[in-house]
Amino acid sequence: MRLLLPVPLLVLMLVATASVVSASSANAAQEYRVLQLNLCHGGVNTACYNGAATLQEARDVINARQPQVVSLNEICRNDLPPLATAMGNGFGTFAPARRPDGTPVRCTNGDEYGNGLIFRSPTAGTVFSGVYATQDSGTEKRVYVCVEFPDLIGCSTHLSTTGNVAMAQCKAAVAMLRDRALAGKPTVLAGDFNLRYAPLFGLNVQDCNASPFFRKGDGSVQHVFTANMGFTRTEVIGMRYTDHPALHIVLTRP
Is the pLDDT confidence value at 28 over 80? Predict the structure, then answer.
């Protein structure tokens, strides 16, 4: 026997069902994509420097993956604006690596050389950057650059090529962000750490990890440390015009 509901009751039930579906959709986790790029665009390392082709390839990857944040290593300051256009003119910032005397490291074209961040955000965040306390004896002092928003903090870094120094810098970067992460803020730390995930051989990048962070990498030296976000997948994208692949991490956030 088919039960016929009065029209007012049926309408009320449909509205209630729609409200539940709408609330469920609103509370569903949102995808958050992080793209890590080391572009070898300073001009000093001629083995991997490819000029304008590198920036075009980076723009192509950004357009294809549509990340919420891009972490950039080995770029020149003036590389940031053309890459920001691929992010819908999002908010970007840059921090130069430093010489032992504190002056900026320079690209071969005279521009400042270092690390950048671009967020797909129409509003500016609070920027802070710094030089690690532990450094090797080389001519480049390694730095980090971060942007903090009310609901998220993201950082980019490029660590020393000396293993024990890179490990100390990695531990310092995670420690610097840990209080925010423990307080529940979604946190992303990306970069070229010059450390591998190799439990059986020497230094292991996982040794600088600490709760509540988890780490995902490209199978080599690029990694993303994340807290208070879910993990969906890792994608390693071959790049023709730089000596590192692109590392694409797909996360979720409430």
Answer: no
